[in-house]
Amino acid sequence: MKITSSLTRALCTAALLSTAAISSGTAFAQTPAPKAGAAPAAAAAAPTAASQSAWVKLCEKGTVMAKDKDGKEIKEDHTICLTHHERIDASSGIVLVSAAIRQVDEGKNPLLMVMVPLGMAIAPGVQVGVYPKDMWEKIQKGEKVDDSKLVPLKMAYILCHSAGCTGEIDATPEMLNDLKTNGGIIVYAISGNGQPVAFPIPLTGFDNALAGAPADNQEYSKQRRALMQQIAENQQKVIEEYRKQNDELQKSQGQLGKGAAPAAGAAPKAAAPAAPAPAKK
What we know:
The protein has 5 helices and 15 strands. By secondary structure, the chain is an alpha+beta fold.
């Protein structure tokens, strides 16, 4: 799966959406559902540049089982940090794409991890293109870019679960430097029907988030729950509006169906069209 400029333009410039930040230092990006008739590949729209960070760092302590030099299992305590970004579909709350740098014990063996929704073809895996700032700005504007010289990062899926499928690759110092200094990345996958799908992710604030102190986990969880509640409330409003419109339509059809009963023996006549309402003076 080769990254080409035509693929970039087709998948990333159909609709450009801004990042919706919840608060400084903690941001979630929301992607509105595509309009009816929109190409499926354009559903993951590229975000415009944002002044606030599109990334957040979260850390927690955990215990894992390991083996000592003699092969005996022992418990080890580690601090695991994820500097990550996630893009959420505003109509359903589904995570469309997420990316993270996973670090154990202050930067040991970092990994770049990406997650895409279920329904992607497993065999091709995913590729990640890292775009310089000038090219990223052009992509957001829908302008033509020549990315033929970019070398994509290739990774295989290592795990699939209810939220999506995840791939990972070692994050070398060179890769981390690229992520710190460039404009954005695009995660490329192949859907189950063989169509390429692109998931753009801005790198705004990545450098500061990676080097900075972690966010408060409880506050982050609180804000994320609030976001999901907001999405659920919006879904309920849409459902109620649909029911209201459906009820009004059924009432209208019922009124049109009413009329005087035809005389005995007379052939039924086609219902006359309703007279237009008189124009207001």
